[in-house]
Amino acid sequence: MKRILAVLCCLVTTAHAKPADLPTLGPVVNIVEWSGNQLPPVYERSDQLPLTRSDLAKLSDSRFKTEQLVQMITQRRYAGDVSADGLIALQTAGIAAETIQAASLHALAPNRSIDLSITLKIDGQRSQPRTRYLYVIIPDGEIERVFTADLNQVFGGRWTSDTTTDRSDLLIPRTVRTVSFTGRIPLTNVAPRELTVFTSPRPDIHWLSELDDTTRARARTHAFKYPASSLRSDCRLLIRLYQDRMLEDNWTITGTHFECEWD
Questions:
Q1: What is the pLDDT of residues 75-95, one digit of tens each?
Q2: C-alpha angle 116/122/125, rounded to 5°?
Q3: Long-range contacts of range 169-177, CB-CB < 8 Å, 24 or more positions apart?
Q4: pLDDT in tens, 125-174
Q5: Whole-number Å distance between alpha carbons of 13 and 22
Q6: Do 170 and 197 meet the contact criterion of CB atoms below 8 Å apart?
Q7: Nearest CA-CA partner of 232 in 258, 259, 261
């Protein structure tokens, strides 16, 4: 009898013991408690561009029904400001409450950065530039975002995107080097703004207000919009650097081009 009890005790202990090769038990979920729950609705999206605030105002003025506008927003999404100020602007424009709710629900994620590609067209031979520091400054609300490069380092290095084109003629040897850098720039303040490009001998510029009159006169400025939301936020900056053929340490910016794609 004692032997039988001992065997039973061993069986009970073994049945409740956790084998070493089994994972730790996680929480147990009672699926009965899911009763009444619903999965999020699946929306049929259109390949058309999202609607904007001006689109909604135009369609509303053209007597499109609220139900139609809500359905369009559901299918195409909404590219616009849906902050408190943005929603107030929609209401002030006479947009129906149901349409405003749909815009708030289906709005694209707000922009918080841009993807910027900076391409340098270097027309000249490697030398020590007199104004060796390249700056790109973009104001962002109360701060100024400063991006800089030491041209000595750019001229002397080899980069992932780095090509050279021979543009020599019979009399003058000439090569143009193209170097590109790409990165993501955080921009939190949604508003039109300006991008400023310049070179300077100073390595420690942090604000546009620090520029002297000579540097300010040489600076190139590009105004651009920065929407609250968009499908894309790709911007490209082209900078042409030219070396004086007589004074090899004299490099100047002869041209810049800046463009952004938002849709």
A1: 999 998 898 989 999 999 899
A2: 150
A3: 174/123, 175/125, 176/121, 176/122, 176/123, 177/120, 177/121, 177/122
A4: 888 999 999 999 999 988 999 999 999 999 998 888 889 888 776 667 67
A5: 16
A6: no
A7: 261
Going by C-alpha positions, the residue among 226, 225, 222 that lies closest to residue 194 is: 222
Closest-CA residue to 149 (of 179, 113, 104, 112): 179
Count Cβ atoms below 10 Å from residue 222 Cβ, excluding itself.
Answer: 17
Percent of the chain with pLDDT over 90: 57
Q: Which of 179, 133, 175, 132 is nearest to 158 (CA)?
A: 179
Query: In whole angstroms, what is the distance from residue 51 CA to residue 114 CA?
Result: 21
What lies within 8 Å, CB to CB, of 89 at 6+ separation is 53, 81
pLDDT of residue 48: 85
pLDDT at position 28 over 70: no
119, 236 Cβ separation under 8 angstroms: yes
DSSP, collapsed to helix, strand or coil, labels residue 117 as strand
Separation of alpha carbons 69 and 193, rounded Å: 32
